[in-house]
Amino acid sequence: MTTEQTNAEADQIVDARGSTCPGPLMDLIGALRGVDAGAVVALLSDNENSTTEVQEWADEAGNEVTDIVDEGTHYRIHVEKR
User: pLDDT, tens digit, for every residue of 33-71?
Assistant: First the structure.
């Protein structure tokens, strides 16, 4: 999967690379508040904790993590708003 392919699958991209926790998660939550149900937001984060924090938050909030991709320098986490 290339970066161009994954960008096309997301309705919105949040680039939180360089942010420390909980910054990436807060940026993701803010983006999801602005989209309709069914939309997919891609979070780009180079913070390893984001993969578990986003999954835990999504489970509690009723959203779905549809994909987590390690792109070498950062993670791309796709979350679908429910």
Answer: 999 999 999 999 999 999 999 999 999 999 999 999 999
The pTM of this model reads 0.89
Q: Which residues are paired to 77 by β-bridges?
A: 43, 68
DSSP string, 6-66: HHHH-SEEEE-TTPPTTHHHHHHHHHHHTS-TT-EEEEEE--THHHHHHHHHHHHHT-EEE
Of the residues 6, 11, 17, 21, which is catalytic? 21
Q: Is 30 a catalytic residue?
A: no
